[in-house]
Design a protein that fits this description.
The structure is a homodimer. Chain A is α/β, with parallel strands linked by helices. Chain A has two domains: about 170 residues, Rossmann fold (3-Layer(aba) Sandwich); about 100 residues, 6-phosphogluconate dehydrogenase C-terminal like domain (6-phosphogluconate dehydrogenase C-terminal fold). The first copy, chain A, has twelve helices and nine strands. Chain A has a six-stranded parallel beta sheet. Chain A has a three-stranded mixed beta sheet with strand order 7-8-9, with helices on one face. In chain A, strand 8, helix 6 and strand 9 form a beta-alpha-beta unit. In chain A, helix 4 packs parallel to helix 5 and helix 7 crosses helix 11. The longest helix of chain A is centred in the middle third of the chain and has 27 residues. The relative contact order of chain A is 0.11. Chains A, B: This is Prephenate dehydrogenase. Chains A, B: Keywords: Oxidoreductase. Chains A, B: It comes from Chitinimonas taiwanensis DSM 18899.
Chain lengths: ~280, ~280
């Protein structure tokens, strides 16, 4: 049971975490912190949080747990404020989509507090954002990856794990670099491709007809291009090493397809499409 | 009211068309033709069709309308058989995803019959295939594009339009080349990108971890990579001119993103992601 949970960034992830823990009676009070007063007012109105604040120092007094659920690009500023105000025992965790850079931020700003820092990443993204997107059960049967620092205490790690499990999530543990390599491939690369694809469509003179005639394949393929631009700018910059490598590999694969098309090589196209189709059809989640 | 409808290729599209027209009492008898006896047996069992045949010549005797719903790559062979057997008045239409090449096939094989030929493309794709995927209402609120030949009679065009409208579809009309340019952009390119993306993932040594940790963004982005490989081989080859141009434009856009990433140009990344995100979020379908 947490006496006081502070959520910094009350959006889809932070808000849904608060809702689930309140429903599970694992937290007494949730304080939300954010840049947008309108969003905090909405969060209060929806009872996602019990109190709102724009002042980190006063809000984290007596906090048991602080969840950083802002875009990664804002975490440095938030941690600098936390460094001066955090109670000695408070656990700090985060929901950042990249983990190598967030680990470096913990070291830079909370070096005295690393035993209580538990970097994490709930895999429950969405193109929705803001407190109004928060909902019960968002993490049910979803995965949460924790990437503890060398210094993270087993007890702090266990407590964070338990809270995510109480939200219905399956918790996995790996190193920050393993995490970042995998998510460059399965998440960051698809987002970059979807953004680039939509922009290449917009550059066409017949873009309006295209959008009018686009069907369900387009709908699903481009859903992630509706994602939060600032958050995704931060993610791709934070993880640009692995991402650039994956982009190069993707371009090679695409050039192979282009060569097959130019050559009219039906057998090679079939074989490649079949390989992808079989894996995708067999993928269960 | 059609006395006899012949569906060549009883899959998602052909089967769903038959179901809707039967429910609307617009057809007395549906005869299904296909290469797979198991699929035809399934179609009979599910009452998608009333009779099955593997012989085009006998099946199309007395037919009022023939729908070609096979992959485009099989249409030449089917039309060659139709040429010898088609009743003088029978309307021929198709559901091919490319229209320039199908128009050429009509001219090559059914030159004597062009007034009764109505090329078409229902926009209701899916990664599902086979008669078992057929369902009522598939075309409800979907678009169907008809690309009549110069020779197509207004009466034949009107009859095909009416049948699709009876299935709940919105029918549009354009030239084959307009159609092919738009669908290269909104459908064929995304499929090629999704196939290439899945194949680039499979080439990784940590592909298994990637598939295990992939989330809902991956799920939607790659759904079309589960599509029918043979059908998509035919489509991309049939429309490779416009598709190769779109691939080149996409690669340019991707190179722009890569340069922004390499330069760490946060403002340019934000601006491009925002442009895509706004269009995608505002897109309604």
């Amino acid at each position: 049971m947490l006496n006081k949970l502070v959520i910094i960034g009350v959006g889809l992830i932070g808000g849904s975490f608060a809702l689930d823990l309140k429903r599970a009676r694992l937290v007494r009070e949730v304080v939300g912190i954010g840049r947008s007063e309108a969003n905090l007012a909405r969060a209060l109105q929806l009872k996602v949080i019990d109190a709102a604040s724009q002042d980190v120092a006063s809000a984290v007094q007596d906090a048991d747990l602080v969840l950083l659920a802002t875009p990664v690009g804002q975490m440095a500023g938030v941690m600098a404020q936390l460094a001066r105000a955090l109670p000695h025992d408070a656990i700090v965790t985060d929901a950042g989509s990249t983990k190598g850079d967030v680990a470096a931020l913990y070291r830079a700003h909370l070096g005295h507090h690393l035993a209580r820092c538990v970097p994490g990443h709930p895999i429950a993204g969405s193109d929705l954002s803001g407190a109004a997107a928060a909902r019960y059960g968002l993490f049910e049967a979803k995965k949460v990856v924790l990437t503890p620092l060398e210094e993270t205490s087993p007890e702090a790690l266990a407590r964070v794990r338990l809270l995510w499990e109480a939200c219905g999530a399956e918790v996995l543990q790996m190193s920050a670099s393993e995490h970042d390599a995998v998510f460059a491939a399965v998440s960051h690369l698809p987002h970059v491709l979807a953004f680039a694809y939509v922009n290449s469509l917009l550059a066409r003179p017949d873009a309006a007809s295209c959008l009018q005639l686009a069907g369900s394949g387009f709908r699903d393929f481009t859903r992630i291009a509706g994602s939060h631009p600032e958050m995704w700018r931060d993610i791709v910059l934070a993880n640009r090493g692995p991402l650039l490598a994956d982009l190069a590999a993707f371009k090679q694969q695409l050039d192979k397809t282009i060569a097959q098309l130019e050559a009219g090589d039906a057998a090679a196209l079939s074989a490649d499409f079949l390989a992808a189709s079989q894996v995708r059809s067999g993928w269960k989640r």
